[in-house]
Every structure is written in C-alpha cells, then in structure tokens.
Write a structure and sequence with these properties.
Blueprint: H1 2-8, H2 15-22, H3 26-32, H4 36-59, H5 65-82, H6 84-92, H7 99-117, H8 131-150, H9 157-173, H10 175-181
Helix pairs in contact: 1-6, 4-5, 5-9, 6-8, 7-8, 8-9, 9-10
C-alpha cells in the first residue's frame, strides 16, 4: 500500500490492485479490513508507531528541552529519509485519504505540539504563553515537511532541519537564540 499510494495517490488505489500486489485474495482483505480507508489507517498507524518509537529513542536521555527538540528532529528526519515512499505515505498521502486519515494528520501535528509545548518552561518572561504557540509552531513544522516531501527534497534534510528547529524554538527562546539554530549542521 505504501508504495502504490506514494506513486499514484490514495484515490487511484483499488482493492483488486492492492490484493494483487500483496499477493492475497479479496476474501483475505475483506476479513482484515472494512474498506480501503480502513486498510490505509491500519498501515498508517503501524508506520507512525515506528516513527514515534524512533523519535522517542532519539530523545531518550536528553534532559534539556532544546536537546530533545534537536534529537527528535534528527530522529524523525533520518526515519523519513530512509524510505521516501513511506515519508510520502505518512505526511502527504494522509491528507487525501478520508476523514479518518485527517484525524491521523491532526494527531501528528498534536504530537509535535506536545514536544514543543515543553518550551514554555524555557520562557523567562512575565507574559504567559499558551499551548497555542506550540500548535502554531507544530503546524509550521508539519507544513514545511509536507512541502519538502512533495518536492522530493527530504534527502536534503540536513539543509533545512536547522530552519525547522528555528521555527520550533523561536517562540520560546526568542529570535536571537533561534537564529543560532540556523548555524547548526547536525546531519553532516
């Protein structure tokens, strides 16, 4: 499913093509899934579990929020670079695969926001920040990743990861500190 959807889009996929490619019969598909969207969601959930496990492992042992952001960014970038079809499936195709898939996309953005929201403890200011800052930054990071994957530019992640970290940290650390992130080259 990942390869077919990445190459042709979810709308072009039908059960018979998928069954033929997977070398299973239609009866087997019908026992496992309600429909194509259900199959898509199942495969997407499995791939997201892999991505989240990779990101969590990368973050493990990091004490500082800033270090966690970098570790998560590097972990996610490397995972997405390993398989461009899987990256397309996870980040791009999820936007056109039905209502359930939209919920999955929203969960991805909220997971990013969960990580970024820890930045509120970094703010040394009298103004109180809300979770909205994390959600805005997470949406910016996600939409940038979406565009890079659509443009087949994920393999050049070392070029734009510092910019993603800039987007993620700027609301919390300020413009000057965030600009320092643009000088870091973590994947080279």
């Amino acid at each position: 499913m990942v390869e077919i959807v990445a190459a042709h889009g979810f709308a072009a996929l039908d059960v018979s093509t998928l069954c033929e490619r997977a070398r299973v019969g239609r009866a087997h598909f019908d026992r496992c899934f309600v429909d194509m969207e259900d199959c898509f969601l199942h495969v997407h959930d499995e791939a997201m579990e892999e991505l989240c496990a990779r990101v969590d492992a990368a973050r493990d042992g990091r004490d500082a929020w800033h270090d966690e952001i970098w570790a998560a960014g590097v972990g996610a970038m490397r995972f997405l670079q390993e398989d461009p079809a899987r990256a397309h499936f996870l980040v791009v195709a999820v936007n056109g695969a039905g209502r359930g898939a939209q919920t999955r996309r929203d969960r991805i953005v909220q997971r990013i926001a969960d990580l970024l929201d820890g930045g509120r403890t970094e703010v040394e200011s009298e103004r109180r920040m809300s979770r909205t800052s994390a959600e805005i930054a997470a949406a910016a990071v996600y939409s940038t990743m979406l565009r890079k994957i659509e443009d087949d530019a994920i393999e050049r992640g070392e070029e734009f990861l510092p910019e993603l970290i800039y987007l993620a940290t700027m609301p919390y650390l300020g413009t000057r500190a965030a600009e320092d992130e643009l000088l870091v080259q973590p994947l080279r």
